[in-house]
Specification:
The chain has 110 residues and is α+β, with helices and mostly antiparallel strands. The protein contains 2 helices and 5 strands, in the order βαβββαβ. The radius of gyration is 16 Å and the shape is globular.
Length: 110
């Protein structure tokens, strides 16, 4: 199994999730998490820009999309995210992939 993490612009996350669903990449159960994070992607426009006193630099609100998939679905997942997270910028985010060695469901016990 693989974990895909994608750091993308906030205005693209809904399109990415929708594309994953309509391409049957995400079937039940769907292991997708979306987290609002601060990051250092280049802002699309001035409305995205913020300044962090804690970090001492400019930041934007990004979204971190995390999903788990079978190895054979990895390339398709990357392709869907890459296509739908684009903003017109040279770099609109990043996609990272890690191996999942163990996945243990938390189930009801009797």
């Amino acid at each position: 199994m693989k974990e895909i993490k994608a750091f993308i612009h906030k205005n693209r996350v809904a399109d990415v999730i929708h594309a994953l669903k309509i391409n049957n990449f995400c079937s039940k159960p769907c292991n997708i998490s979306v987290v609002d994070v601060y990051g250092t992607l280049h802002p699309i426009d001035n409305r995205e820009k913020n300044y962090s006193l804690e970090l001492g630099e400019g930041i934007i609100n990004e979204m971190k999309l995390e999903l788990i998939c079978k190895d054979e679905l990895l390339e398709r997942g990357i392709e869907i995210i890459h296509k739908n997270a684009q903003t017109g910028q040279d770099i609109a985010g990043y996609i990272y992939v890690t191996d999942i060695s163990i996945a243990i469901p938390i189930k009801k016990t009797n």
